[in-house]
Amino acid sequence: MKSAAVIGGAALLAACTSSEPDGDIKGIDVDLNTAQTDYDDVISYNNFYEFTTSKNDVVRLSKDFQTSPWEVKVEGLVNNPITLGIEDFKTSFDIEERIYRMRCVEGWSMVIPWLGFPLKKLIDIVEPKAEAKYL
After folding, report:
1. Which of residues 69 and 47 earns the better pLDDT score?
2. Which residues make Cβ contacts (< 8 Å) with residue 100, sequence separation at least 6?
């Protein structure tokens, strides 16, 4: 189920285009003054098909889904395998805030604040081996 949730989130983002902080989406100008999308809209519209194919019902059907304790294991062709829980992520990395402007091929768009860290920081810690082909 953990993998399914990650894959579902990745599928949502893969179907959409997000802008870089400079406001450019693959050569398309973006109005950087667009208001942020309402929080309730952001958390209630998604593509987690593990719960339902109805984007608007996921929040209701997943309300009792347990997301803790979860761990992420990075192993395989890395010099420093690591297992991190959610609290480890919060304490091991400097958290950054970014604003993402997303336009989806399905016709919706959102302006969403994001707190997190660049994936490169985790990659630098685990040190993928030269023979690694995928992350």
Report:
1. 69
2. 18, 19, 111, 112, 113, 114
